[in-house]
Amino acid sequence: MDLDEDVQYIDEFESLEKHLVLPGDLVTGNASYMRGHGTFLNSQNELVSSVAGKVIKINKLISVHAPRARFTGETGDVVVGRIIEVGHRKWKVETGARLDSILLLNHINLPGGELRRKTIEDEMMMRSFFKEGDLIVAEVQSTFQDGSLSLHTRSLRYGRIGQGTLVKVPPLLVERCKVLFYNLPMIGVHLILANNGYIWISPSRTDEDLEYGFDLSLEQLPLATRQSIARMRNCILIMKSKKIMLSAPSCIKCFEESMAYEVSELLNENVMDKISKRLCSKQGDK
């Protein structure tokens, strides 16, 4: 294959990337791409889809993500999860994946951001760091051979999260981008659009909060803040119901469109249809 043919083939793939494929469909015959989840190599060494879903290309890695499949994490993914078990120098974390994820004691930041070798005293105090039922935000450090994920919280933007609400959506609906943490003081909320489809909505944060980690206080939030969080939650449920991709711009637009209605009205089917149509028409204009 000469260079012109190769460029043309890649251009064809770029246009194919936004479409859905069925099991057995050819994804690409270009041998320079690497095989990811949801694909396999046929006898002609071509990359073929093994599931029905959307083709995702990250650099040279191609995968097919099924709409209702379990989360299959990759190194660098940001996840929100719940601690379900405290074990020997590790925590088990539920992240919506096929198997529970693992957070090792050596892979966390100590309170205050202190970095040092973990001791037996730290092991005895593990429940003072994270205990059963705690929600945390973490990053995928690696994957084990059985497909389970190894997490870490070695950054002040990771760790236990405070007051807010959790909304679960299919991971495919979360737009993959470099930034997943959004502080939106103009509407009074802070968003974490985690790659595993766990969306965390909390009060907007000050510059000091952003520098020193999450606010873990349990003081009652102002009514206006609680209403903003509830409105954003309902907006995300609307986008989930209507299969609209979640990103910071789409969430803000949906929030703005919802201001014509009371929070309690947003999950009415007629209101959901009106908001989703306006949102889709604005996205179409672009």
Question: What are its keywords?
Answer:
disordered N terminus, alpha+beta, OB fold (Dihydrolipoamide Acetyltransferase, E2P), 3 domains, 286 residues, 5-stranded mixed beta barrel
What's the short version?
The protein is α+β, with helices and mostly antiparallel strands. The chain has helices spanning 3-16, 120-124, 126-129, 207-212, 223-241, 248-258, 269-285, and strands spanning 20-21, 26-28, 34-35, 39-41, 47-49, 53-58, 61-65, 78-87, 90-94, 101-108, 135-143, 149-153, 159-160, 165-168, 181-184, 189-193, 198-203.
Per DSSP E runs of 2 or more residues, the count of β-strands stands at: 17
What is the strand content? 25-35%
**Main β-sheet, spatial strand arrangement:** 8-9-10-12-11
Round the mean pLDDT to the nearest integer and report it: 85
Q: How many discrete domains?
A: 3
Q: Rg to the nearest angstrom?
A: 21 Å
Which ranges are low-confidence, i.e. pLDDT below 50, for 5 or more consecutive residues? 1-18
Q: Whole-Å distance between the termini? A: 37 Å
State the helicity in percent bands: 25-40%
Large-scale geometry: flat
Series of secondary-structure elements, N-terminal to C-terminal: HEEEEEEEEEEHHEEEEEEEHHHH
How would you classify the helix and strand content by structural class? Answer: alpha+beta
Largest sheet: 5 strands, mixed, barrel
Protein model, in words:
By secondary structure, this protein is an alpha+beta fold. The protein folds into 3 domains: 63 residues, OB fold (Dihydrolipoamide Acetyltransferase, E2P), CATH 2.40.50.100; 83 residues, Beta Barrel (OB fold (Dihydrolipoamide Acetyltransferase, E2P)); 103 residues, no CATH class. The chain is 27% helix and 29% strand. The strands form 4 sheets. A 5-stranded mixed β-barrel has the order 8-9-10-12-11. A 4-stranded mixed sheet has the order 1-6-7-3, with no helix packed on it. Strand 9 and strand 10 form a beta hairpin. Helix 5 crosses helix 6 and helix 6 crosses helix 7.
